[in-house]
UniProtKB/TrEMBL annotation:
Signal sequence interval, chain numbering: none
Keywords in alphabetical order: Hydrolase, Manganese, Metal-binding
GO molecular-function terms, A-Z: arginase activity; manganese ion binding
Metal-binding is among the record's keywords: yes
Organism field: Opisthorchis viverrini (Southeast Asian liver fluke)
Cross-referenced PROSITE patterns: ARGINASE_1 (PS01053), ARGINASE_2 (PS51409)
Protein name, as recorded: Arginase domain protein
Gene3D superfamilies: Ureohydrolase domain
Amino acid sequence: LERPIHLSFDIDAIDPTLAPSTGTPVPGGLTLREGLRICEAVHATGKLSVVELVELNPLIGTQCEVDRTISTAVTLLKACLGYRRSGNLPRELHSLSDEGILSMADKRKKDDHDG
């Protein structure tokens, strides 16, 4: 794909347990993980030129539901812009490359074996 990508992400594609403040909630919609994978994959192409997140309606639902929907939307937008999830790694490992983490794991395995 050589052309720039324009991503239009409808928040109502996300399951309403995560994004209830939308006009057309879809029970059984995408999980946050599935939405993040889409956004991360588009970012990884290096071709993303426009991203829009639509169908978020802060007039629908309780304040808690609005906040949850906004939090989900921000998380998805950050992924589109290259923010990487850190999972549950200890804080000191967040800046390590994948290779650095693997070499540390290999060293620990060797130390445990030699131990």
